[in-house]
Amino acid sequence: MAHPFKLPSKTYVTNFDEFVQLADYSLMDNLNADPNARCDGDDHRARQVFSGHFVPVTPTPLAEPEYITHSSTFFNELGLSDELAQDEDFRRVFSADLSVACAPMRQVGWATGYALSIYGTEYTQQCPFGTGNGYGDGRAISVFETVINDQRWEMQLKGGGQTPYCRGADGRAVLRSSVREFLAQEFMQALRVPTSRSLTLYVSKSETVTRPWYSQNSRSTDPDILVDNPVAISTRVAPSFLRVGQLELFARRARSNAHIKAFEELHMIVAHLIEREYKNEIDQSFAFAEQLVELAMLFRQRLTSLVANWIRVGYCQGNFNSDNCAAGGLTLDYGPFGFCEIFDTDFQPWTGGGKHFSFFNQPAAAEANYHMFWTAVRPLLAEDTEALEQFDQVRRGFAKEMQKQIQEMWATKLGLAEFNSKLFTKLLGLMERSEVDYTIFFRELSHIPDDISALKKSFYVNTSQELDEQWQSWLNSWRDLVSNGYDSSTVSTKMKQTNPKYTWREWLVVPAYQQAAQGDYTLINELQEVLSYPYDEQSKEIEDKYYRLKPKEYFNAGGVSHYSCSS
Ligand SMILES: Nc1ncnc2c1ncn2[C@@H]1O[C@H](COP(=O)(O)OP(=O)(O)OP(=O)(O)O)[C@@H](O)[C@H]1O
Ligand SMILES: [Mg+2]
Question: Which residues form the active site (predicted)?
Fold first, then answer.
């Protein structure tokens, strides 16, 4: 007899035939396709796309694809069995060969156009036609839409070949960047930071592309050699891949009356955003203008919280343009990113990013993107002055909300009930002077030590007696504030849930993609495992290997400490 309280056991999708039955394109089908597109999806040359929300396009299969890894955690969440990742037809689809797809799945994927604003300034120069009509998913191709447990997901190949937006480039992603994106997405999820998710990773055993990169031991800022790299495809998954830049594209067209349906297409894409990303929070039976005010509030909340989380975990999105800013408020585009090791408010690993997109400037970069979102959506409220005023007010409140989120984050990171400006400012100065390792410092502090000896484990420089005394004095003041609240073991436990023990250390990731190029995926699997439990204590062996300062030889090393976005 079944136990009355037993939960129904989960059923898993174990083969490709069952998987295709999950396809549900009903929301994509609500949008307009490019009226000039070929319906067979054979659309692989750079061209201008003047209207429509997407272009049907077939991805280009990887030659001789080999399975590297998949996210077991995410497969489990989706009810997909691990063995599915090894299924021949599944592997073919996620290495870009849609010819095996059968109904209700389709054999044609889709790519979308988007606009680009850099730090709040509109650009069209990056488009080969100078108009913006040839800019968008140049190598990202979505291939599947599904609803699982009431959640809609879009599955997108990165590196799936040329699209009309490829700008003459090859549409491929190299193994290095695919491994980085795959691991980083899983890591961010484990850190509880909203992100696109990793599904699968396959590499070609015979196809390569040439990219600029760094020679061994290079100290050069820019790449100094050309390297043949294996190509790979990672599949990422999100409720949508709508970017602020995408809303901007339709708003720019509406503004210039580019075609007769331009305003309607703007309306449609914003309604689509609400349905895809804000469905549970916005009541779509309300007047559209009211929904937009709510959208502005919710996106502001998500974006400010996202950026506060980035700073909490040491993440820097080195190129936070509007085309890399997801309108659903999640982290997107793991190319130019890095995680801060030696604490530096100006930390910026991507050589093309400059100070605008550096570590502590992310709140300002986020505001510039939010401004572009506001500018794009605003024309849709023109007829409703009251709603417009509320909408504008939400925009004006961005900086204040950002500050609130950041201060709450610092308070939590420090185990305090509320932000203490004096204590925080003093701490920043000490962290900079002692060149602390951002992760190790906060993790050691989470043990609430009596004296500074444990904290010194995180210092990259030897400190003077005078500096040590300043540290001790800071620690005493901090401990007084901490003990004012809950008992210290409760605070310590909470701090350890906020301050990860394990982080992304580029010099430990480099060997993983280098070995992978030789066909050995052991280190990738090891990193997946370690980075899946960043807040937990792990074995002594893992601690010795991953919880340590960056060795001197990697300082200023090209491809490790800094990199161009040669992806
Ligand atoms: N190898 C390539 N082939 C075609 N287009 C590319 C290639 N590399 C980059 N692009 C395009 O250049 C633009 C800017 O590049 P960026 O590095 O932000 O994108 P990405 O890493 O491909 O994208 P995503 O933001 O989708 O993660 C994007 O529109 C992207 O599609
Ligand atoms: Mg991008």
Answer: 323
